[in-house]
Every structure is written in C-alpha cells, then in structure tokens.
Amino acid sequence: MSEPDAGPGASSPWASAALAAALLAVDPVGIRGASVRSLAGPARDRWLGLLRDYLPEDAPMRRIPTHITDSRLLGGLDLASTLRMGKPIAERGVLVEADGGIVVLAMAERLSAGTAGRIGGVLDRGEVQLERDGLGLRSTARIGVVALDEGLADDERPPTVLTERLAFLLNLDNVVESDLSASVIPPSQVAEARARLDSVTFPDDIMVALCSASVALGIASVRASLLAVKVARAAAALAGHEAVTQEDAATAASLVFGPRATVIPSGEPQEDEPPPDEPPPPEEPSDPDQPEEPQDEDDSDTLDPQELEDMMIAVAQAAIPDKLLAQLREGKDVRSRAQSSGGSRAAGAAKKKGRRGRPSAVRAGEPTPNTRLNLIETLRAAAPWQPLRRQEAAKEGRTATLVEVRRSDFRCTHFKQRSETTTIFIVDASGSSALQRLAEAKGAVELLLADCYVRRDNVALIAFRGKAAEVLLPPTRSLVRAKRSLAGLPGGGGTPLASAIDTAWMVATGCRDKGQTPVLVFLTDGQGNIARDGTPGRPMAEADAIASAQALRVSGFSAMLIDTARRPQPMAQKLAAEMGAKYLLLPYADANAMSKAVKATAAESAAAEGRMRG
What we know:
flat; five-stranded parallel beta sheet; alpha/beta
C-alpha cells in the first residue's frame, strides 16, 4: 500500500486540507468533522467535492441552513400524519436522515449557540433523543459535521461548543487556484482504509506522547487529544499500517494541535531531566553462560518518550498558522479568538419583546401585542389529544370538530431583535480646546466616525462653545454629513460644560425612547467657565457641570470622557467619576486607542441594556 501523498510536512495549505478530507471520509463519526474557513469559491467547492468523492456512494451529505428549526433539525411530531391517524406520529429530523454521512452547516459563524449545542450533543451521543410532543423516541444519528465558516473578521467564528468537537480547523483563504490541480489521494485508497480501520492498534507510548504534546501546546480541552487519537488511527489505516506509527501520530498532531495551540513550548530542559552530557552508566559484565539477546535492527530508529513528545510538538508548531504564530511569540492571549460567535461589531442590546426580529423561542401562552400565535406549533400541541377530546365530546353529546384546539394548546413565537447603537460625540470647541487640541480632536473624531460607519452605528454630533451647546448633527448613518458638520466646526469662546451635558442627556433620552442604545463620548479638558444660565464664572460653571453629570449617571447611560489636555486635568477626572464615565487621556491623539475604548464601552452598554430589558 502506498503512502498518502501529503503528510505532516505538507507543502501547501491545500495539501493539508485534501489530506484532512481523506481522513474525515475514513472515520467521519470518530473524527467528528471539520471547520472550514473560506468564502464561497473554487477552493471550497473543490474541497467539498473531494470529500463527497471520498465518502461511500450511499453515505448522505445534507446541507443545513443557519436558522433551521429544532423540529426540522432533531425531528418531532408529524402534524399531518398525527391528525390523520389520531395518534402521535414521529417525523425524522435532518440529523437522523444524515445517519452514516455528513451534515454541512452553511454560514456556521452565524449559528446560534443553542443550535450548535444541540448538534454537539448529537455528536457526543450518536443519537437524537425526543422527549416532547408526547414522543419518547431515540433515533441513531452517527454523523460528521462540516462547518463552513464565512466570517470576515478575526472574531467571527462558529460557536466554540461546536468547533471544539471537530478535529480539523482548516483555512482555505490562502489557497490559490493553481494548487487545486495537485494530485490527491485516490478514492479507492480511502475506501480500503475505511475497511481496515477497526483492525489498527495504537501503542501506549505514542498515545502518551500525543497527550503530552497537547498539554505542552497549551490546549485546555481534552477533546483535542481524543480527536488526535482518532485522526492518527485513520492516518495509519490510510497508509496501510497495522499499528499507529510515529509518522501517523505526527500527522494527527499537525492537523489537530497546530490550529489550536495557545503557547509556544520552551526549549529549555526540564528540571527532572538529566544533563545531556552526563556519561552513561558502566555496562554490567555479561554472563558467559547467558546467551546474548539478538539486537533488533530497528532499535536505532526508536525514540524514547521525551524525544517522541518533542517530535510531536515540533510538528504541531510547524503547522501553526503564521498569523497565530506571531501572536504567540508576542505573548498575546489567542484563546479568545474562538470564544466569540459574533462579529466584531459592537451590537446593540437584545430586545426580547417585539413582533419583529429573529425568532428566539416558541412558548406556551396566549397571544399578546408582543408575540405572534404560531399556528403550526399550536396544532402540534393539540394533535395528540384529539382521540381523547372526541371521546369527551361524545360523552357530552356534542358534535366533535375536526380538530379541537383549546386555550392550553396555544403556542406563541417570541422574537429577539438587536437595537441600534447610537454613538453621540460631544466635542469641546471652546477657546481652551481650540487653542490647544481642537484640530487633533477633529482628526480623532473623524476616525471614530469611520469606525462607527463600519459597525453600522448611528452617530450624532454635539459641539459646545460660547454660551450654549448645539446639536450639529442629529443621529444619522451618513458619514459624509458627519464629516461635513465636523469640518465646519469653529473654535473659540467660553466653555458651557453643563449645557453640553444637558444637551447630550436629551439626545440620548430620545435615542433610548426609539429603542436604540446610546453611548456618549465627551472630548473636553473639563475646564468649564459658563454656568447653565449662560453667565460666566468658573465656580458656578463647575458646580452646574457636576450636578448635570450626576443627573446623567442616574439615567444609566454609558459614557466616556476623553481628556484633550496635554496633561491629566483633575476637573476632567472628577467629572468622569461623577457621571460614571470611563476616563481616557489623549496625549497623542491616538485614534486607535480611542476606537477600541469606544467599542468596549458600546459593548458594555449593550450588555447592560439587554440585562435591564430582560
């Protein structure tokens, strides 16, 4: 039997991806599946076609949409058959229909955590359990999963509850079209490997080395080691080996551990290791009457446990993606990259009440202005009771209807909708700022406006100078209008700080009344000198500003105060504390730091708003 065309030292990402497809087809149930990060294109189509060619002809390959319902995914009550037969009739779900094959999850980065958890549970158990709608059935669903990841941002990933159960985390973004014509493993070889898989044995020392390498690479989940064992057995079967060899284990370490590594192991020797130049102990004198044991010709090629583990680590480290490897060398925490299932946008709060948005749940209850009657689920709830209700109608001497629906059968759909985030910029255009940093503040705000536009946030612009604050731009998504209003902002005059805070409160209140999540960003040095009534005087102006800041804090709006002075100003710090805002000094007009701080504030505001509405 010939060796596979690709191995741990595969020359291109496509070679590794093609090998992963072959291994997955050898043991789809044990390997569980692959997460394939790639937009729709020739590389992804070629990989899926290759996987289809490797699978048995009778193996199903079903595509699952992102927003599939639980009844279609797992199965449930067959409404038409139940009403016709007068007893509960079960309907098979997509996972049961795909038993013995592969399910393909389209746009897996948008998959809800609940749906991902249900699929993960089926992967763990190998069956679907139905304990509702009067059904208590268990159906076999031994499947593999291919999660198509089309996320554009680094933190747009499929839910971790799903990806940690899949052996392969592939990235086809860097695959060029010329690579697709390279030779791959023939389907006949994959079929032969599938037939001999059960007879492959696994030496204990290689299994220990694999698990130790996983720990050394900082992989927290034990599932990675279990998946690597399955991949190594499939690699041995594909290569025609009767037992897993070092090369098979190295292939598994490369494909499974490489994309999951979170640390780079130190090359320093451990404390309990003997020094490398320690002389070997003297040989014991041989007994002339004892026959000498024959030497194994392969002893020189056998690695001790530590060398075997080091080889696994080296192979996995060579397979770490370049971008991830750079982050590891800089000491950055990369484990958070797989924790998020959403995009990089600072999404607004989740509104659980309403008749629009994404369906979140179907619950028993009567329809309300904020819910919709789900007719199909209502009929599903009523169907199992029809024989009993017909008997009751006969005893009461009344004519039974075709389908008798009672109040207890009502099922209503609840919706979840993300509110829009509105970032309100309050810019100090007074003389104290105009003489120092107004031009730099304008440049920083322009960059923040562009970032808000990318996140599809609404923006509003308030400027304060002279005796009052002015709303230059009501909440809008027009980046051109926002930049035009900011460019025409004059500088000079007094600092009506209290008026600015009051105006910001009014705009934020209007946004909240519209269902939006407001975030306030103040750019000022905090040196107010105009009171609320327009009269000059620093003591009264500061007192009014603190009173307005305290009122803003009571309203619960998320806010940030960016100090535009050259040095930290005590009054600006005090003002931020009184309004419950984050304080950020802007010594060099670092728009990147400002952008990250604003996004973090928006995310916290959305979470707090969601808890309050929930």
